Structure formats: C-alpha cells, structure tokens
Amino acid sequence: MSFDYAAQRAETERLWAEMSAAHDLPETGLLDLHFEAGDAADATEFIGWLEDAGFDVEHYPADEDEPEAIEAQSSEMTLSPETIHAQERRCTEVALRHGFRPVGWGFMPA
C-alpha cells in the first residue's frame, strides 16, 4: 500500500500552524497517535510493536458504529511539527504493514 508521507507532513505542519496561531503551545508533551483498522488488520502485532517502542496503548474493538482503533501515547517529548511528524511517520510505516491507517494525532502537556 502506498502512502503519501509528504501530504501527512504538510497536514501536520498546517495543523501546528493553525493551533500556534490560536494558542501558546507547550514545548513538551505527550503525543497521541490514532489509527483505524482496515481489512485484515493485525492488532496484536501492531500493539506489540508500539509497546516495545515505548508507547502506552489503548485498543478499541470494532462495534456497530466504529471500526477497530488503536491510540498510542508517547512518553514526554519535545513538541514541534518535525518531532510530531517523525513519530507519526515511524508509527504509520508499521501501522500500514499491520493493516491500520493513521487518522490523526493530538497532544497534552506533560
């Protein structure tokens, strides 16, 4: 499956600029990455990789209204468009191999 990492980076930079214009953003925080399952998704393997990479993971099984989803939270890190996209890309590469796709990110101050 091909994925447009340049578009992902551009969207991260756009969102950061939009948020920065409206708020004083923290220098450090906990990054939350969100993924949804596609066909033949393997949550067990993806969750295992995320945990081995140091993320806290929440798994949400599919229900009648929502697809299966995974939320991964980093440890405290520097927040910037570059650091967010680096984590986003690294996790997206693995997510795609396990049948998940990225659907967004957020953060909270540490």
Automatic annotation (TrEMBL):
It comes from Jannaschia seosinensis. SUPFAM superfamilies: Hypothetical protein VC0424 (SSF89946). Pfam families: RraB (PF06877). This is Regulator of ribonuclease activity B domain-containing protein. Signal peptide: none annotated. It comes from the Bacteria. InterPro entries: RraB-like_sf, RraB_dom. Residues 11-106 form the Regulator of ribonuclease activity B domain.
